[in-house]
Amino acid sequence: xxxxxxxxxxxxxxxxxxxxxxxxxxxxxxxxxxxxxxxxxxxxxxxxxxxxxxxxxxxxxxxxxxxxxxxxxxxxxxxxxxxxxxxxxxxxxxxxxxxxxxxxxxxxxxxxxxxxxxxxxxxxxxxxxxxxxxxxxxxxxxxxxxxxxxxxxxxxxxxxxxxxxxxxxxxxxxxxxxxxxxxxxxxxxxxxxxxxxxxxxxxxxxxxxxxxxxxxxxxxxxxxxxxxxxxxxxxxxxxxxxxxxxxxxxxxxxxxxxxxxxxxxxxxxxxxxxxxxxxxxxxxxxxxxxxxxxxxxxxxxxxxxxxxxxxxxxxxxxxxxxxxxxxxxxxxxxxxxxxxxxxxxxxxxxxxxxxxxxxxxxxxxxxxxxxxxxxxxxxxxxxxxxxxxxxxxxxxxxxxxxxxxxxxxxxxxxxxxxxxxxxxxxxxxxxxxxxxxxxxxxxxxxxxxxxxxxxxxxxxxxxxxxxxxxxxxxxxxxxxxxxxxxxxxxxxxxxxxxxxxxxxxxxxxxxxxxxxxxxxxxxxxxxxxxxxxxxxxxxxxxxxxxxxxxxxxxxxxxxxxxxxxxxxxxxxxxxxxxxxxxxxxxxxxxxxxxxxxxxxxxxxxxxxxxxxxxxxxxxxxxxxxxxxxxxxxxxxxxxxxxxxxxxxxxxxxxxxxxxxxxxxxxxxxxxxxxxxxxxxxxxxxxxxxxxxxxxxxxxxxxxxxxxxxxxxxxxxxxxxxxxxxxxxxxxxxxxxxxxxxxxxxxxxxxxxxxxxxxxxxxxxxxxxxxxxxxxxxxxxxxxxxxxxxxxxxxxxxxxxxxxxxxxxxxxxxxxxxxxxxxxxxxxxxxxxxxxxxxxxxxxxxxxxxxxxxxxxxxxxxxxxxxxxxxxxxxxxxxxxxxxxxxxxxxxxxxxxxxxxxxxxxxxxxxxxxxxxxxxxxxxxxxxxxxxxxxxxxxxxxxxxxxxxxxxxxxxxxxxxxxxxxxxxxxxxxxxxxxxxxxxxxxxxxxxxxxxxxxxxxxxxxxxxxxxxxxxxxxxxxxxxxxxxxxxxxxxxxxxxxxxxxxxxxxxxxxxxxxxxxxxxxxxxxxxxxxxxxxxxxxxxxxxxxxxxxxxxxxxxxxxxxxxxxxxxxxxxxxxxxxxxxxxxxxxxxxxxxxxxxxxxxxxxxxxxxxxxxxxxxxxxxxxxxxxxxxxxxxxxxxxxxxxxxxxxxxx
Length: 1195
What we know:
alpha/beta, 25 strands, eight-stranded mixed β-sheet, DNA-binding, ATP-dependent helicase/deoxyribonuclease subunit B, Rossmann fold, DNA damage, ATP binding
């Protein structure tokens, strides 16, 4: 037996050298079986390539059929399986993630008293999975529980510098030894771990005769623990030849961190083990032309000179030696020939992908013999690019194969199973139900047939809307008397859409019944399960009963019919994985007591390890993959994307139970044992090998390399270029070309941004101004027209001149949408002035915001209004005042009325256990406190409530509407007055009060601009109805805050004892608004001495006994100006509404909380502008402007 190691740098074609050696054996009629072993990921490509080269070596032409039975290409796993099969032995079943999770969970439970450290850590999310990984690592490295206990003393001695860490590690090792012992005992001879298949082969093949075998290994830079067991076995059993990356001259001189450190370490380990087994070892230098003693043609006497060879070097042959030095922080020799190396930095990831696609198309055009299959796109991490790849590649018409693991965890079938098995008390959460239903796999059936997609998903969408506005509890889901009504019928069967609304409601309740049936069946079935085996059997019976598998098959067939074969295959892969997971759970722990949480966690663990198989589905497509995955070296062009400092080198994290610090203490002790054992490397050691990963990427392509990275990351922060890039580019003096997201002009577009017609048109659309470029534009347009995009060009380019302006409605449409005379509330007019177009959407088209069950300020405002109406209404009936309200009366009226309110559908959520009743209790407390504030404020005067929630302008009210204008221009304003007080016993003055959930004050500027019309309009309406109300005149109108304002204790100015006793008066409650500067009226609010400040009004007297400038008072003359302007604004708004004028011209604050932004699409780039207020400044400036207008009108 002999071992031959061929050390070859990456630029040398070691495969060709091995094929020549194989050819030499065949020529010499060596009858031994030849196995050529490569990494599994490139097995298919390698098999094709090796046989193709062998055919050429044996004189076959490229188009001749060639077959060879003596030479076979395998991966190590397939080779082991092949030999095991030849021995007539069968490998035990491999235990997957789900089975391991259940097994380890049970071990932790049974041995909890022996595991002081792990018992605490078990509750931590992900701990069991991490422990499973750690146990698998120990078994793979053949580290026994006894080994862990044996090294405890050594660990404690070596860790004296950090006793706390050492103590923690010792506890971990003891716990790990206990769990590992139970784990090994449970697996015994019945199961294997995935990484134990190769050691099992070695164990079972002790008597295997490989004397008639020759094995070649190529493409490995290192080996896993399992692979090492096979390599050691082969060293003893057969002639073994390994082609390993590296430089023979550095075999004994390399240092840790060098590019070749890992493969050369591998070579030294093989040499050491071969000598230990007394096997002959030969190390060959792959840089020699014929490292093996082969029969070959005599050397060409006209062999090119050295300088000519240098000129003919490929890009790979130039870059790899350079990076072997640069990656090891050494200086390479000077280069006489420049490689085809390019670099660019793009604005962002999308621009980077677009530029890569553009350059690939250019490569194909420049090189007719280049195919997509010759091009490789690599990234160290494809995460930031994955969601953009399909759109970009489709736009540039590039077929591609994503050679990367795609996890199954987010598949709809996984979502369905995990949600069904979730906590029973969360089964009827809206999010849970909608997730289940939106998978489409659990749906009602009719006459034995599943409901079709159109009806089903439409009903689910309606249910989504219903749940957003109602959030029914589990009790209401189960109440058969409670119907889910999305559309009220209002007793109008002749109304357009009535039948459709009723159909939606009917379907909604059928779905409601199905959901209750399905979720209850799941909860009852799992509750009755005694063992995990019972639970698994029930789950399968459940899925069969509700025709889930039939729905899955229907979905697969639909995907096949639509031509999406990849997704169709993925559906069945997930289903098969699900079946396998259940099988493993039953086999490993079927007799264990059923635990819903453990059962779910086992399934989740199994799904988390599931990955879809990736198979190229076209003969010619480019490959997109991640660096670090073994790649075929058949490519000619490499695009390495995403080379930022944070991504390259990759930031490795260790997630196993033994941390990196633990490993630094444990590994030396393991290595010093009689039979050395080795754990996986620390994260730092793995990161030190990133230079080799980059080397492997450069090795994949022969002719051209393009490096790129995005300037901005996904969060909009600036990236730095990878140090790997900078070292390579600086050495070869290659500039980094900036690539913008769009062309500067047409000349730039035609020079640098041409792609497919669709991609080119997309770039053209981004250009803001084409003035002065008519000739260039016509050329581009003609080219796009020739490509069949003539009409599309016109449509797309017209968007550059688009102005986001609303058209004036036709008179007929305006009249149909808005009745004559126009009947409006004051809030509608204010809404018009805030945002005219939103008024049109809301009150013209009657578009409503999606209902929400969240209790917002508007909903709480309704509740408070109702409570105050009841409380004040009782006082009016008894002819009492707010001063007469006692805390006991306040409590009774609030609680009684709130109990009535929560029975109404709108507020039914407040009657639900948990959060609903907690919020109701909070509202109860706040309402009582606010009523106390109102009662306290009434102590300063003789006011008495006269009306509460009084309507004007409505048939059910006794007060007339406010009518302005005549004929088609007439506008009728109606509304509801929250409270009207008789300010004095004689009824000379009335005071208007409007409750606000925000601390609102009167703004002269807003009033003059139409944004605050309520107080002035209600004032006028009460004045016109004064006789009916039994008052002489209105003296003031105020906003009353109905909210709890929290103030710091340091700012409290009251009596602390009263505060602690709950009797302190409010420090912040104050009426804000307008009061006539009438001494008699002001005295009725609160009698103040000179320099005294009112407690509950914004009113202060000067030393002369007159209101100060900061007081919220107004003279009769100034009030007349405001009232006149108010009427003008009402009429002006009515005229514009009736004329159909609704420009997109909001005030700036109107869009902050607008529900209609997605419809308006306000954008300054498209010509939209905010309103510029006509009136600015404070009271004095606004009154001055109004007076100037008045003077101008009067000449």
